[in-house]
Fold Platelet endothelial cell adhesion molecule.
Amino acid sequence: MGLPQRFILVLLSIYLYSASVVNTQQEFKIQSVKLIIEPRNDVTAGTNVTLRCQATVSTSTEKGPIREYTILKNDKIVYTKTIGSSEDFVYQLHNARVFSTGLYQCKLDIQGDTKLSKAQRLNVQGLSQPVLHLEMNVVNEGEEVQATCIAPGEIGSFIFFFFDNDEQMSRVEGLSNQAKTTFRLSSGGIHKIHCSYKIRTAEDTFPSTKSNNVTVSVKELSITPVLKISPDSTIYEGDHLNISCSAQNFHSSSEGYKLFLSQGTKLLRTGNSTINHNMVAVPKVSEALTFDCRVEMRNVEKYTKKAISVVELFSVPSLTMFPTEIFQGEIMTLTCNSERFASQRINREDLEYTLYPSKNLPSSGKPGVFNVKALQNDFNYTCSAEAKGIKKDSKTLMIRPKVHVSALKISIEDKVILKKSITILCQSNGSLPINYTLFKDNVQVGTKVIRERNRQAVFMDVINKPGEIQYRCEAKNSLHSNKTGSSQHLSVNVIVPLSLMTLTVIPTPLAISEGEDLRFICSVNGTGPVTFKWYRTGSAVPLQTNTTTETYSSFVIKPVSKNDSDKYYCEASNGANKVRSENVDVQVLMALWKKMLIIVACLLLLSVLLLVASMLYIKSKRDRREAAAELSVKPSSPKSDDPLTVNLTHDTDVYNAATVKVDRAEVSVWSKRKPETESDDEISKMSNEPNVEYTEVVHARSTDPDRVPLRKGTDTVYSELQNSPHGAADPPDYGSVEYAELNREQFEISQYHPQVHSYQDLPEPVD
């Protein structure tokens, strides 16, 4: 088989194996993981403990998947193992110790899917007793000793302690169950050495019992320190002291020793043989002088101490002043004095006192007494007392001269209103405390003591009567001070609250005409200055503001117009209160000249209308004359020189009212219904009647519904014209009659008739 064929077979095998692996991949589910501690959770040290991890896993095949178990203690991994079976996983703790105490958990991991059991606590009680070993049981004083302390069978983090007669000597920490240390025993005799240990866990520390005691015998060194001080009797301040430090019972050998001389914490001298030290005795306040002599050899140190009392030659001086309170520029007395002195050594006269600074001090004649003038600012003094070369200084005396009260001021914080509380403030410059007294019209009101800087004295008062009131303040630095400051008099005017406000309008609101000056006068009861404000209702902006010391003020609108008609009111305030008047309704009437102008205009208009009416009337008469002149009237037998008259046959007011003059002859017109039929005989008969001319008047139709024609249903009115000297109808002796037709455009005579309420009641003409 060739190489290519083998390669192909290998690839095919890999492919078939991969396919089989994919096909045979199983599914699983971790249902639960449980940790069991056997034999129990609480055990004693040395017990074999088993941690059993039980897991329930559901799989799709009989053969389970690979499992990885992990044991955790206090959230830290202790042990991990991978198994292929479904059996319980077991972790053994052989010979359990206190260090094994903690919280344990079991974690199962299958192909990345993990589950953690609940935590179980294991408590192991009891530590083994430590064992102590020493290299030597007999040593010389200062010689080193090596000790070993063992905690049998224990594991963990250890702290070992080593003790000498129950006094701890050293401490060693580590992870091993045994520790070593070296120490020196500095004193001779029998020493009992023991040890103990503690084991630290994540949660707590567990102590062990004491180890066995090991006895060590220490041989003491024969060297002894010696301290001598002279004089050995009563020592006074200023005496010279001789102090020596040495070693005794020292046997010469190759080893040396070293001496140390100290006073308290101050090292005076050191040396390898006897040490001598000279000094002047200086007492310490409430303490004796303590000296220490030490000898050191082979890391062994021995010492001796002595304390001596030094009698004070004289006490530290004290500096006092009188008087205790002093003001700038005043004379004071400073006294420097030492209260105690050793009379066995000095007299009081041996003490010399000096004051610092000592420039220009006046002599008082007594030792330690100085007269000093107080400066303008703070200053310090000290004094000293000296005897037999010993000098002592007093404490510093700080002197703060007081400042007399000055620049006393008085003020009032609020406005002074009748029967209301006011606040009066008093303040001045000067040293504290300051006593203030308030006077009202030279009568004392009260007192205040101020003990803080930049603070005012506050007084309260109530004024019950109007008028001018005077206040003043007095101040002094203390009740016993002889100098008193006084403020100027503060005069205040009491403000009386406003009341009884009235608003007057001139002229009266019912007699105000355009063009006049309208004056508002506002008055109140109270005290000024008063601020008056006038308002128009509906507006928050005052029309005028005026402040005056009077209790009244006025506001003028000039000239007034119809637009000024409205309601007005005023307000007044004086710092005590604010009052408001009632509203005043102002109605501005028309000006008189406007009224006269309207009357004149009306009269002129009426005159023009009358003139036009007269002209129209005259024109109408002229037009009727012209129309009558155009009528063609032809009488058959007119009489010469007789005027032609035309009368209505009905003698009524209606028919007689319409008359017009034609050629200075009075003419009356009456309507006559045209006969339906006429025969020739009748016509011939009519020819024998007087000459009458019939005129057919055609009237234009009236558009006035109140006007009714004389006859309904026709536009033709027949009128009979008859010659008559007086306008009266002649006897029915008529002449020939001729008809004439009037134009429609002629002026209608009926429009000049007197007013008739109904034309229907008029009688119709008789045929």
Q: What stands out?
A: The longest helix spans residues 592-629.
